[in-house]
Specification:
globular, alpha+beta, 17% helix, 3-stranded antiparallel sheet
């Protein structure tokens, strides 16, 4: 089964927060919502609450102004593998 992870990096926190969704459209909608809120210049303390599909009781509430980056990556339970999150450079010798 393929799951899509949404990972948040927070200001002053060495550990990211993440949730998993079954559908790419769901995780992309949340990604776009957070990105839009990050663009707002107001100093309001908006909270966003995120719910995980993989762990049913997992809820995360985060102040949007503390989010410094977000990313989506695919995680597959087949063969226990996952696409490596983040970005990689391919350097040819």
């Amino acid at each position: 089964m393929i799951m899509y992870s949404l990972e948040l990096s927070l200001r002053y926190s060495p550990f990211p927060l993440s949730i998993q969704k079954k559908e790419f459209e769901d995780v992309k909608r949340i990604y776009d919502e957070i990105k839009s809120l990050m663009h707002e210049t107001s100093e309001s303390s908006k909270l966003i609450e995120l719910m995980c599909d993989k762990v049913k009781d997992k809820l995360i509430a985060v102040r949007v102004k503390e989010i410094i980056s977000i990313q989506i990556y695919e995680k597959s339970s087949v063969a226990g593998g996952a696409k490596r999150p983040g970005f990689s450079l391919n350097i040819d010798s």
